[in-house]
Amino acid sequence: MNGLENVVALETALSEIDGENGRLHIRGMPIEAIAASRPFEEAVYFLWTGKFPNADEKERFINEIFAGMRLADAYRRYLDAIPADGDATAFLMAALAGLDRGAFPWPPDWQQGARLIGLVPAVIGHLQSRRQQRPPLQPDPALGLAGNYLYFIKGSRPAAEEIQALNGYFTLTMEHGLNASTFAARVITSTQSDLASVVVGAIAALRGPLHGGAPSGVIAMLEAIGSEENIEPWLTEQLRKGKRIMGFGHRVYRTLDPRAKVLKTLAEPLAQGGGWFALALKVEETALRLLRAHKPERSLNTNVEFYAAALFKALGLPPDFYTATFATSRLAGWCAHAIEQAQNNRIIRPLSRYVGPVHE
Ligand code: COA
């Protein structure tokens, strides 16, 4: 009951996680197969509609995404009023909270989702252009969503391998059952709130260190460890203090998260033998050994966030964009759940049991 563990709260046709065997299926298809064969945009279309797009559908879908990526002048002025020197996740939440709610009438649909998924990279790009004191870049449809995301952040056209790696990350992490932010998204949708507000609320849940905030924690951990000799003493001390090792453990998986395996293969060539990647591999090895001894009854394995952190670092993303990068992919899952919730909506309103004192 604590943390609603093992409670089935609703039915979904979107994804199925087999935590015992380390499998994740999206609409009945293994996530690894989708990530290996389709760019993110097509994977999102499949998640939202249950089929891969034909040429016409793909063109319409991509046009909608790029319409979202082209920011109106009035909206740019609104973005200019949000502080750029603070936290990027807070900037993104403020940006989405300022959207015209009338543009997202109930019920949510795929067109609204497509515009939002295009908008997020452009908002992050706008923030980065302000920080780097250069004019905002215009989206380039030839780069696709993942390529534009990197282009907006780096300010130069990314290499094909970088785009391919980010496409893989986006697809692998777009949907994952009733995780905390997706549950939050369904609760907010059930009140008939608009899709932009749903995404703001979901990001609020995602940014916590036990959920999507973990990759920044992984990088902070690698930096604090610093050298191979320090790995074991540092991790031992954390466990002694009752702290959690970021990038390990999962509520549902009792074996290796299938997404972590693929992310490792995406990050490795981009890291080009960098010392920090070798350190990460050694940290993983030692952490798994220590966690086995620390909690023998619980199978604690490397989770997706450990190698997401490695991939983000290999791609040269600034650490404070990590949560926004996760939000860009998971937005696909939030919108899918919002659309599914709206199709058979009843406000989500469970009960609590009072256990406090009684004063007559
Ligand atoms: N480091 C150290 N101990 C951990 C741990 C970790 N990464 N993950 C779990 N544990 C411990 C817990 O403290 C708990 O111990 P306790 O019973 O003495 O309190 C025990 O193992 C059981 O934990 P479990 O029930 O599996 O965890 P959970 O379902 O409550 O939480 C996470 C799942 C993901 C929140 C948790 O594993 C965690 O905090 N991991 C680190 C953060 C992270 O990587 N998040 C990204 C998730 S994809």
Q: What tags apply to this protein structure?
A:
single chain, mainly alpha, Citrate Synthase, domain 1, Cytochrome p450-Terp, domain 2, 3-stranded antiparallel β-sheet, 16 helices, binds coenzyme A
Give a description of the structure:
There is one protein chain. By secondary structure, this protein is an all-alpha fold. 58% of the residues lie in helices and 3% in strands. The chain has helices at 31-37, 40-49, 55-69, 73-80, 88-97, 110-131, 144-154, 160-172, 180-190, 195-206, 214-225, 231-240, 258-271, 275-294, 304-314, 322-343; strands at residues 15-18, 23-26, 29-30. Strands 1-2-3 form a 3-stranded antiparallel β-sheet. Strand 1 (15-18) and strand 2 (23-26) form a beta hairpin. Helix 10 (195-206) packs across helix 16, helix 12 crosses helix 14 and helix 13 (258-271) runs parallel beside helix 15. The mean pLDDT is 95.
Number of helices: 16
CATH architecture of the largest domain: Orthogonal Bundle
Summed up, the domain count is 2
Name the bound molecules.
coenzyme A
